[in-house]
Amino acid sequence: MSDKILKIVGRYIYDSRGNPTVEVDLWTSKGLFRAGVPSGASTGIYEALELRDGDKAVHMGKGVEKAVANVQILGKMIVDKGFDVTQQKEIDEFMLQEDGTDSKKKYGANAILGISIAVCKAG
């Protein structure tokens, strides 16, 4: 059964340590599906980049407004492409291709993962 993605919206919430993290809402004809992105404590050189704003005056540099804005950008592209929630692999590949970096530094792993988890929940 096919179910097109109608809308994807991001926002920030706080994780269990009180740090901002990304939350994604995804709508289909079946309703709303929400995904909160876990924010990792480790930052190895080979890990995907969790995009943080870096403004020390806001959340001590740990803000995620850039990543949230990137959820809106990627979300619009996904909706415009007419993806179905059952196309998890294709959506993930599309986001990785659009990002174009090994570390996911263009859009941020937190934006990409949030959308991917929301798609998984919806599909």
UniProtKB/TrEMBL annotation:
Residues annotated as transmembrane: none
Lyase among keywords: yes
A single GO molecular function term of this UniProt record: phosphopyruvate hydratase activity
Protein's UniProt keywords contain Lipoprotein: no
Entries under SUPFAM superfamilies matching the protein: Enolase N-terminal domain-like
UniProt xrefs under InterPro entries: Enolase, Enolase-like_N, Enolase_N
Leader peptide range in chain numbering: none
Top-rank taxon: Eukaryota
Enolase N-terminal domain boundaries: 5-123
The protein's name: Enolase
